[in-house]
Amino acid sequence: MSEGPGQYAGLRVALVHDWLTGLRGGEKVLLEHARMFPAAEIHTLIHRPGASHPELEARNIHAGPLSRLPGAARHYRKMLPLMPWAASRLAPRNVDLVLSTSHAVAKAVRPPPGARHLCVCFTPMRYLRDQAEDYLGRGLRRAAAAPLAAGLRAWDRKSSHPRRLHRIVAISQSVAERIRRHWGREARVIHPPVEVAPIAAAAAAVSGPGDFFLLVGGFTPYKREDLALAAFAELGLPLVVAGDGPSRPRLQARAPKNARFLGRVSDAELARLYARCRGLIYPQREDFGLVAVEAQAAGRPVAAFASGGAKDSVIPLDDPAGRAPTGVFFAPQTAAALAAAVRQLEARRSEFEPAAIRRHARRFAPERYRSELREEIAALLAERPPPA
């Protein structure tokens, strides 16, 4: 839903995003911004036409020079050394506000003279730090790339200077801490928007949970589907696995018999799975993690690794503030610890009230996100620009 008439009358806005090659959590935040600013054009490093949401594809999209290279939409990770140069070619003009959404280099866009720049930061660039192996390789290749990585880290901090990046929003407390550590900047935490209403509606048609737990996988190493499969091999409880990705064939081939793989499912089918499951298994560390909130929108508890964005979105048993619980945490990040958390969730199931879990999930609805982001935009536009 777009903002009401006159909400930003006369405000000229450019939306900047790292790349438009699919529809994941970052693109859903960008979609919310596009709905807030119906006249805004989109600037991005790489665009694969038709890969994102139809509302985004209908916009005037300005793709950078990397987008013209063969295979760019699939091999953009290999273009990391070129990304600072490509980001400098993002050139919104004749705007008052640049609103970037970034986990890589979009935050380095240079606003035109007189414009203000607000970045919604998903995380400082992991590719230069704890995901460097995925981008720079290992062994000798990693060692040879070390000078490049050092230069890119220096560029990453420099391009986050207040003269270029005027105000920052972080999507979780974990991300705000990383911004403080890597950039020396403070950021207000505004949790991303989650479409909780359709999931809650699907859950209303279900009388109660079924007999299975749910894992929503992306099948890349950090998602830790292997951990969940090992835990459920020990537990022997039914596990339904939705989603697809590079490591799925290997993991499915050695999965226990009590795990059933569905592959990629539609949003409607995923909502039904949330509604029918006994709980969500969440073994990964995410910067925020929409899936954990979506499961709670269905009134289902979450067994989550005690790190990252889950610490913002899941209320554990025996919460010090006395809030109604919405899940259980486990640590360390091992199969044994996850299995113990699932046993705890089952043993204390009567303490998880579906209505209370759904109420908690509504805190992350798009209306709240728009309201808090409007406050940040208003504060930014009211500030005196720093000296050039």
Describe it for me?
The protein is α/β, with parallel strands linked by helices and 388 residues long. The protein contains 16 helices and 13 strands. A 7-stranded parallel β-sheet has the order 3-2-1-4-5-6-7. A 3-stranded parallel β-sheet has the order 8-9-10, with helices on both faces. Helix 12 (290-297) packs across helix 15. Mean pLDDT is 91; it is low at 1-5.
Gist of the model:
The chain is α/β, with parallel strands linked by helices and 388 residues long. The chain has helices at 25-36, 54-57, 72-75, 83-88, 132-136, 139-158, 173-183, 197-204, 225-235, 248-253, 267-276, 290-297, 310-313, 335-347, 354-361, 366-382; strands at 13-20, 41-47, 61-63, 97-102, 116-121, 167-170, 188-189, 213-216, 239-242, 259-263, 280-282, 302-305, 327-330. 38% of the residues lie in helices and 15% in strands.
Topology summary:
Layout lengths: L12 E8 L4 H12 L4 E7 L6 H4 L3 E3 L8 H4 L7 H6 L8 E6 L13 E6 L10 H5 L2 H20 L8 E4 L2 H11 L4 E2 L7 H8 L8 E4 L8 H11 L3 E4 L5 H6 L5 E5 L3 H10 L3 E3 L7 H8 L4 E4 L4 H4 L13 E4 L4 H13 L6 H8 L4 H17 L6
Parallel strand pairs: 1-2, 1-4, 2-3, 4-5, 5-6, 6-7, 8-9, 9-10, 11-12, 12-13
Q: How does the overall form come out from the CA principal axes? A: globular
* Content of β-strand: 15-25%
- Provide the low-confidence segments as ranges: 1-5
How many beta-strand runs? 13
The count of helical stretches stands at 16
| Overall helicity | 25-40%
Pick out its properties.
388 residues; alpha/beta; seven-stranded parallel beta sheet; disordered N terminus
